[in-house]
Structure formats: C-alpha cells, structure tokens
Amino acid sequence: MSESTPLTVRLLTESELATRDPRRLAVIRFGQENLLDPARPTELTLALPPLAADTPVEVWEANEPVAAGCDHDLGYAHTRDALFGWILVDEARFDHDMDQAAEYAYDRVLAFHRAMGFPSLLRIWNYFPHLHDEVDGLDRYQAFCLGRHRALERVPLTEGELPAATAIGTTAPGLVVYFLAGREPGIQIENPRQVSAFHYPRRYGPKSPSFSRATLKPWPGKPHLYISGTASIVGHETLHTDVITQLDEILENLRALIGSAGDPMATLEGNPGALSLLKVYVRHAQDVDAVRSRLQEALGPKAPAIYLRGDICRDDLLVEIEGLHA
Ligand code: 3EB
C-alpha cells in the first residue's frame, strides 16, 4: 500500500540522509538563516532556530524519481502526482513593503502551479521576519495578509479552495513561501471551535487571513491530513496568557479538527499524538522545556514533534502547532 502512496513524509538524521535518493521532493532543515538555492531546488534551510540538539530533517519522499528545476526565482520538484515549490523574495525589491512582497510571491506561486498542471493548492507555508513591526499603522503580518488576499482574489481562489497554511516569524531577511500542489483538490476542513480565519472580524486586520484549518487529501492508497498552524484561538479570540494553558487549548483545537475530518481519519480517533509530524512553534525559547513536557504528558513521549523558535501571527500567542498525517 505504501508503495502506491505518492508522498510520504519522514524525519531523518543527517547520516540517514547521506545516501542519495532521487525520490526526494523536498528536504527541509531548520537553522539560523534561510538557505535556498534555485540550483538545488529540493534542499531548503529555513531561519527557524531548532530548540533541540537532535532536531531531525523533514523529508518529503515520492514513490518515483522527481523532476526538479527552477523558474527564475522559484525552485520546484514534481512527480506525476505532486508538485512542491518555493520562492524566496528579497523585500528590498519592494521597498520593504510586506504587502507588495506577499502579493508578488503569491502571484508567482499561483501562476506557476497552474501552468505546471497541478491546479490544486493543498498546503502552503509562509515565513518572514519581524511579524509585528508596524509600518504605516499595519503590522507586517496584517500587511502580508493584505498582499496575499489581493493575489488570491485576482486568480480567483474561492474560500472553499483555500489551502491549509502556516505563517510564522523567522530570524533572517526575506519572505519564504513554499507549497504542495496536486492534480485534484483536497477537502477543506474547518474547526467547529473556531471561526473560519477568512471570516475573522476586521479588528484583526483590513483583510482576513486566507487559509483553511486543514486539508484532507485522499491520495491513492492513503489519505493525508494537512493541519494548519493551530493556536489558542476559540471563536476568533485569543484565549489565555500563559503558554501551558494555551498549549492545552491548542490540543482541544487539534482534537476537534481531527474529529471533523471524519471517517478517512478514523485511525487518528481525535488523537493528535497519532499524527506523523507535529511542528511546535514556540515564541520564547525559554518556554520549550515546559511545552515539551506538557505535550509528552498529553500525547505520549513518542509523539513525533519538532520544536522551533518562531513569532506567531498575533502578538499574544505564545505557542502554535501544525500537524501532518502522511
Ligand atoms: C490563527 O489561527 C493563527 O495567515 O496563513 C495560523 C495559520 C495563523 C496560518 C496564515 C495564520 C496563518 O489565526 C494564525
């Protein structure tokens, strides 16, 4: 069964990676800076400092050799079934206007995956520094939402087609957007405990964040669940002011979300610990030990989690978790 599954995600050590494998769609590392080279499009290092010494490498492995390349500033790799791609935008080109940089990145990505014949955006990640610096009365995350919204509206991409997403602050310059697209759409999953992000009230920014809470992708042989960055938000409000209570609320959100994915995910039984990969973004590095102990207590010591330092989309959020069942 696994042989027919077009995509598998593995956590590997550097020594396990030493053997070459032409089926690697993406090899994602975490460090102090962004290292993205169009000449090596399947290798990405993101400026998300790992908070553990033994942080593994995230590897997306296909069931056949990939075709990789670059299109100007955009790197990609694909098989018959799946397209992975990324862009690194130098904000200086846009006078450091994050809305312009985001609009450009999304224009490029949206045009590219469609032109390549993979019209369904399944999952997207957005990383840039200084999320909460204010420029012209707008914080940079809100400016990002504005630019992203403009590009999506033009395509147009409707609410029901929005991919699952993550948006997190990095420690190095540049806007990195990377994505997974397929030939056929996934199924959008919303969280019954949360207002859809695209219906957030205006006080969170002039344009709502454009993402769905999760995408369920029924790949042949094995469904995948791509869970967006999930925070301590109920309705549309941030809840709690301490990191552990926020973490407990996130676990409730993850359970609700997995529950609403329904039958194809029945093996998960609302259990986030059964996911293949959890990425835990921690706002303050000194919180990581407490976060890790609480998460292991709740999900078991074997829960596959990567802990990374990152700013979160609202200034009052101290921790966020994304999940992948693959
Ligand atoms: C939230 O639920 C938290 O703007 O792409 C999580 C995941 C968040 C993705 C995005 C934002 C995004 O609103 C923030």
TrEMBL record:
| Leader peptide range in chain numbering | none
Output this protein's name. Answer: Chorismatase FkbO/Hyg5-like N-terminal domain-containing protein
Where does the record place the Chorismatase FkbO/Hyg5-like N-terminal domain? 58-181
Where are its TM segments located? none
Matching InterPro entries: FkbO_Hyg5-like_N, RutC-like_sf
SUPFAM superfamilies from the xrefs? YjgF-like
